[in-house]
Amino acid sequence: MNRKRITAKKLKIGIAAAFMIFGSSSAFAQQQVSLQEAIKQALQNKAEAKKAALQIKKAEYKIAEARAGALPQISATAGLTYNPVIQESLLEFGGQRIRAQLGQPWSSSAVVTLNQAIFDQRVFTGLKAAKSTREFYVLNAQLSNEQIIENVATAYYQVFVQEENLKTLNVSYTNTEKVRNVIKSLVENGLAKGIDLDRTNVQLTNISSSRQQLINAVELSKNSLKFYMGVPIDTPIELEEKSIEPKPELIAGNVDLDTRTEIKVLQKNRELLQFNKKATEAYLYPTVGLQANYGWGGQGSRFPLTNGINNGVLWSDYSAIGLNINIPIFTGGSTKSKIQQAEIDILDIDQDIENTQLTLSLDYKNSITNIENSIINIESMKNNVALAEKVQRDTQANYQYGLATLTEVLDSENALTDAKQNYTTALLDYKQAEIKLIKAKGELNTLQNP
Question: Which structural domain, as residue segments, surrounds residue 358?
Answer without folding.
Answer: 2-71+121-285+332-448
